[in-house]
């Protein structure tokens, strides 16, 4: 989840900077005296949308290191670090990938993989994960992250985010122009969009952005099932990945998280599950066990 949150936060920040820059430089050429030029607006929205997504992708590894304080292992100094680097190397060789950077950071049990390309990727593991799991379980988690790299998930996520950004920018300005036109329909002296346009665009970008995040989250959840399956293939068995997921979710033999047993809540059934970047752990375990 960490890599997704970092990517989305970076994308939002970059989009904001691009939007402000475009306004300052006056490149909003889609606003004409005769109304909106929809063709120009679509080009503008695509440039802004995909530009923000790809800039975020290029920055992803640097932002991930900075925000987590991850320390790249260049020369293993402990047995644990040596094992970690060797294990990642073994998994990437099985997947036919070049060796990524391997890093460790302080934090709760977690791990992530990021990077703009398969040739420039990073696999980072938290100290909490290393301390709370067996070597087989850690290896399964590493295999899951390597599978993300092998599947090209960061690039695909970038393309999905670019399309989503484009439609959010396009639709927000169309609605903004329509609302502003209605507000100014009796004002013959007014020329060009007014405050109603700017306020509506901002509100619509927020609302449409929230709705669009459901699309991104849906794709992200599907990626997790694929990465789990990839980990099982790299490990030669789904058992280590199932064990690692149980450990991460605090699952007991009945398959429910310990903090949910009293209420009997099944993960992902509430509407908030639409915005989750990861499927319920019990669903991931069920998918692995059905292989």
Q: Describe it for me?
A:
By secondary structure, this protein is of the alpha+beta class. Helix content is 64%, strand content 9%. It contains nine helices and six strands, in the order αββαβαβββαααααα. A hairpin with a 2-residue loop joins strand 1 and strand 2. The chain is elongated and about 75 Å long.
What's the structural blueprint in terms of helices and strands?
Blueprint: H1 2-25, E1 31-32, E2 35-36, H2 38-68, E3 71-72, H3 79-95, E4 101-105, E5 111-117, E6 120-126, H4 127-132, H5 135-150, H6 153-183, H7 195-235, H8 239-249, H9 281-289
Parallel strand pairs: 4-6
Antiparallel strand pairs: 1-2, 3-4, 5-6
Helix pairs in contact: 1-2, 2-6, 3-5, 5-7, 5-8, 6-7, 8-9
What portion of residues belong to β-strands? 5-15%
Q: Count the beta strands.
A: 6
Return the string of H and E elements.
Answer: HEEHEHEEEHHHHHH
Specify the helix fraction band. Answer: 55-70%
């Amino acid at each position: 989840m960490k890599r997704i949150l970092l990517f989305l936060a970076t994308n939002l920040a970059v989009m904001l900077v691009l939007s402000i820059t475009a306004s300052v430089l006056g490149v909003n050429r889609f606003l004409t005296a005769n109304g909106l030029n929809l063709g120009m607006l679509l080009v503008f929205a695509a440039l802004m949308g995909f530009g923000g997504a790809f800039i975020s992708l290029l920055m992803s590894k640097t932002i991930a290191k900075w925000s987590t304080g991850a320390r790249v292992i260049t020369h293993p100094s402990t047995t644990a670090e040596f094992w970690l680097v060797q294990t990642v190397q073994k998994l990437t060789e099985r997947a036919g990938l070049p060796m990524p950077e391997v890093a460790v950071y302080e934090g709760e049990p977690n791990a992530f993989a990021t990077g703009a390309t398969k040739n420039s990727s990073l696999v980072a593991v938290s100290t909490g994960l290393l301390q709370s799991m067996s070597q087989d379980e850690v290896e399964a988690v590493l295999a899951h992250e390597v599978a993300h790299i092998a599947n090209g998930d960061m690039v695909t996520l970038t393309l999905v985010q670019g399309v989503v950004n484009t439609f959010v920018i396009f639709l927000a300005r169309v609605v903004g122009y329509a609302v502003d036109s209605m507000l100014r329909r009796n004002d013959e002296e007014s020329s060009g969009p007014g405050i109603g346009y700017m306020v509506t665009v901002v509100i619509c970008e927020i609302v449409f952005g929230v709705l669009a995040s459901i699309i991104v989250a849906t794709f992200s959840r599907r990626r997790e099932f694929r990465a789990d399956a990839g980990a099982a293939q790299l490990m030669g068995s789904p058992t280590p990945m199932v064990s690692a997921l149980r450990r991460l979710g605090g699952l007991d033999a009945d398959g429910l998280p310990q903090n949910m047993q009293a209420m009997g809540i099944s993960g992902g059934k509430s509407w908030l599950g639409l915005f989750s970047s990861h499927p319920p752990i019990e669903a991931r375990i069920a998918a692995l066990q059905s292989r």
